[in-house]
Write a structure and sequence with these properties.
about 250 residues; Deoxyribonuclease I, Chain A; six-stranded mixed β-sheet
Length: about 250
């Protein structure tokens, strides 16, 4: 499962972790935690190993991972002098596969931040390709702040000049897939199925289902072949994002 919390304390107060305790996923990838470790609430989840990569800036960004499986090792960041202080990536190594929780910067605040987003994406792709070249099987889940295709957002015509649906955003996912990575959720639901994982807080967007699919699980081909049962849990309002769930028969 991958889930952008839009603040772990807010999501906790809205019942997100009570729901997770009922669901009991093996691995939970969290983004936009927006808390330092000493600020984390008691999540009430038993039987999980917890790992956190917070941003240096208080109340900003940050990723986490909750896993029932004990990892062989955990690493933080992508060795980026520009971005590692933002708490963008966390990777856990298990027997036979690695899992990454990733939170890609938004470029919606302007051209300068969009340029930073593209720099991060270039560094992140290089990092992923090094891991893949090392023979690792990988699941990369998180909020990518990109709607890849027209089917991935309700109002694509009106958002062609908006960060998240710009040609360079979409081209980055094209490039990722051209290198052999798989969008496992899209592979399973088919090319014409409209699913969204984020909705604006304005204009009643969620009630009208005017959304974007910004949250993904990209995998190496071997793991993509083991993926099943894709779903987005949108019925509960824990965050402006919804959890994206896939099962892997590993």
């Amino acid at each position: 499962m991958t889930f952008n919390l839009n603040g772990i304390r807010s999501a906790h107060n809205k019942g997100a972790f009570a729901w997770l305790a009922e669901q009991q996923p093996d691995i939970i990838l969290l983004q936009e935690v927006r808390a330092l470790e000493h600020q984390l609430p008691d999540l009430g989840l038993k039987g999980y190993h917890a790992f956190w990569n917070p941003a240096a800036k208080p109340g900003y960004s940050g990723v986490g991972m909750l896993t029932k499986l004990e990892p062989k090792s955990v690493s933080f960041g992508i060795d980026s002098s520009e971005f590692d202080t933002e708490g963008r990536v966390l990777r856990a190594e298990f027997d036979g596969f690695d899992v990454l929780s990733a939170y890609i910067p938004s470029g919606s605040s302007g051209e300068e931040r969009q340029a930073a987003k593209m720099r991060f994406l270039a560094e992140f792709l290089a990092h992923l390709e090094v891991l893949k070249a090392d023979g690792r099987e990988l699941i990369v889940g998180g909020d990518f702040n990109i709607a890849h295709q027209k089917i991935d957002l309700k109002n694509w015509r009106g958002n062609q000049n908006q960060s998240g649906f710009l040609p360079e955003d979409r081209a980055w996912i094209d490039g990722l897939l051209s290198l052999g990575w798989r969008d496992s959720f899209r592979d399973l639901v088919g090319p014409e199925a409209a699913y969204y994982s984020w909705w604006s807080a304005r204009g009643g967007a969620r009630a009208k289902n005017i959304g974007w699919r910004l949250d993904y699980q990209f995998t190496t081909p071997k793991l993509a072949a083991l993926a099943a049962n894709p779903r987005i849990h949108s019925s509960d309002l824990f965050s402006d994002h919804a959890p994206v769930i896939l099962e892997y028969q590993i």
